[in-house]
Amino acid sequence: MAIVSAAVVTLSGAYWQWRLTPLKHVQVQSTNIPTVFVAGDYAKAFSTNGFVHRLSATHLMTRALMVHVAKNGHVVVKQFAPLRHNPTIQVVFADNHHSKRQARQLATVMHLLNQRYHVQQFNAVGHSSGGNIIFDYLTANHQEAQPHIQRFVSIGTNYPNAALQLKHLPQQTKILNIAGQIWRTSGDGEVQLNGILAFSKLLTAHHFEIQTKIIHGNPLRTEHSMLHINPTVDAQLATFLYGTSNS
What we know:
- By secondary structure, the chain is an alpha/beta fold.
- It has helices at about 1-20, 45-55, 100-115, 130-140, 160-165, 195-205, 220, 230-240, and strands at about 35-40, 60-70, 75-80, 85-95, 120-125, 150-155, 175-180, 210-215.
- The protein has a single domain, classed as Rossmann fold, CATH 3.40.50.1820.
């Protein structure tokens, strides 16, 4: 039994190191601009934990805050580190299946970050409907002071109402739009590739700075729920958010 346990530990360690390999070649600059992570429907903290653990393990980012939002909108913040060296902020909603309500609650979170933690600028990463939550927040009219968006990474998300909302998106927003395509199929098994590409085309037409990345391959790499644990996606978002060529 001890031999089996040792083998499992060894294999787990080897697998973890393999998962980190694409990130070992990424070079970033160190900033105090945090990145807010929002996951999709029915997501809990573990949905963004993978991003944060891998990016912090390779010293590309720093795990800084975990924000829990109760169903009534009450916000509780747990701090792990100062907001330095590309800090991460995970936002976790108790009511995690109503994206419009979550977008309104995100505004409360961002105001708190602005007032309590002096966050003036931020990046955002959204997977699936997490992208819709962020986009709805960014295109809403807010009464309270909010930090300014710099870069937005959208992973496996389409935006049916983007044409109506886009005029409200801050023009300085730089966007990375990531899609999955299982082999030669029409998408990632849940979201159609054409819908994601249509969003990129619309952004280009409105003169936004947009990069589009399509992750091709087998379902273990490109299926909708696998995109947020794909090391290639990790490397792309780290480079886009904090890469040395950004300065």
